[in-house]
Write a structure and sequence with these properties.
The protein has 146 residues and is an alpha/beta fold. It has one domain (39-145): Glutaredoxin, CATH 3.40.30.10. Helices cover 31% and strands 24% of the residues. The chain is built from four helices and seven strands; from the N terminus they run βββαβαβαββα. The chain has a five-stranded mixed β-sheet with strand order 3-5-4-6-7, with helices on both faces. The protein has a two-stranded antiparallel sheet with strand order 1-2. A hairpin with a 2-residue loop joins β6 (115-120) and β7 (123-129). α2 packs across α4. It is globular, with a radius of gyration of 15 Å.
């Protein structure tokens, strides 16, 4: 039954895929482009891609708003990547470069970077500012993904 399946947006072609709950999501491939739905790396999101992942995925989406010129952002990048590997496919991890998508930063009131936001079912459920070490980042994400 389609209603029992978990919807996940492909990070490569943006197709919405329905994964049966009894199938290992880590091994799932896109029905359209046949690439892995999860590869242990954060997805770069801008504009319509951002909206599609936030609104069409059944899994939570953890977004790191960052900038190339931001020292704390660069320092936190390995932590974000490490937690991505540990938690995927229970959540999608994404990054938004605020210099390439200032409209997204403005939409969510991001005034300083790094800023971390968690979305569930298209809604913002929590956010925090500042770099976090891997253990604190993982604990914060785990508290929201259940």
């Amino acid at each position: 039954m389609e209603a029992d399946k978990i919807k996940v947006v492909c990070p490569h072609c943006e197709a919405v895929n329905a994964i049966p709950p009894d199938r290992p999501a880590q091994a799932a491939k896109c029905g359209k482009c046949h690439k892995a739905l999860f590869n242990g790396s954060p997805v770069d999101l801008l504009g319509q891609r951002f909206d599609r992942h936030i609104t069409r995925s059944d899994i939570p989406v953890v977004v790191d708003f960052w900038a190339t010129w931001c020292g704390p952002c660069r320092a936190m990048a390995p932590s974000f990547a490490q937690v991505t590997i540990a938690i995927e496919p229970r959540a999608r991890f994404a990054k938004v470069d605020i210099d390439k998508a200032p409209e997204l930063a403005a939409r969510y009131g991001v005034q300083g970077v790094p800023a971390l936001l968690i979305f569930k079912n298209g809604r913002l459920v929590d956010q925090r500012s500042g770099a976090l070490p891997p253990s604190a980042l993982r604990q914060w994400v785990e508290a929201h993904i259940g």
